[in-house]
Amino acid sequence: AAADSGAPVVFTIHGAWFDNVQLFAPRLSSIICVSEAIKQSVLSLCPDHAERIECIPNGVDTNRFHLNSNSISESGLVVVASRLDADKRHLIDTLVSLWQVQANRGCHHILRFLIAGHGTLQGELELAAQRLGIPVSFAGWQDSDHLAHLYNRAAVVIASGRAAMESLASGRPTLALASVGAAEAFESEQLPMAAWSNFGGFGAQGVSAPEGLFDRLCSAANHSNPAFAHQAFEFVLAHHDDAVVNPKLMAIYEKALDNRS
What we know:
Layout: E1 10-13, H1 21-24, E2 30-33, H2 36-45, E3 53-55, E4 77-81, H3 89-104, E5 112-116, H4 122-132, E6 136-138, H5 144-153, E7 156-159, H6 161-169, E8 174-177, E9 182-185, H7 191-196, H8 210-222, H9 226-239, H10 242-258
Parallel strand pairs: 1-2, 2-3, 4-5, 4-7, 5-6, 7-8
Antiparallel strand pairs: 8-9
Helix pairs in contact: 3-4, 3-8, 6-9
């Protein structure tokens, strides 16, 4: 309808649902993709409109989420930052599979979980934690300032999308889980690939075997890595800082307005 009125249309794609974008691409001023994985797929569908397809990732407020030299992470503490609803089923199932490994090995206290978020499936997680004997606390929904504090306490974070970026900006090793994929960001060399899929989103690999993933999670949660903390923060600062991302977005909107018919 906006295109029919002559108004410029900037279309942003956040996930995998863009199968028909080629049908209306000619009527769009710009197509913004939040990850390089999405951009490459959109380019394959709309090769004649490459000049209008941009990759601009989600941004992070690094004034709020950043390295804190005064914070000391709590060894073994895993902070999970996520809503607990049906669209997060992949994250919830992965979490329970990790708890199952922890219970099977009889190492119930090697990892402690603090869940920052709530939703319709919280009861399911509460029952699983109780059944498996895993130490889990539910903190409920947290605003940004409280999340920043929790990230500073965490030894490792499980989150998706923007929350995963906020965790990395805080210098924390992060397991990024989205609707179907996973991106481990425990080492600096994993950061570019995690960003390529928007941190566990479209284009990410599936979750690896829970036993191996549990081992890597334990290693990250019980062995502090100050070098990684600095590298993760610098990576987010260079590529995902609001101060970097927002001017790029504004330039696209301004160009669309300048070129309107």
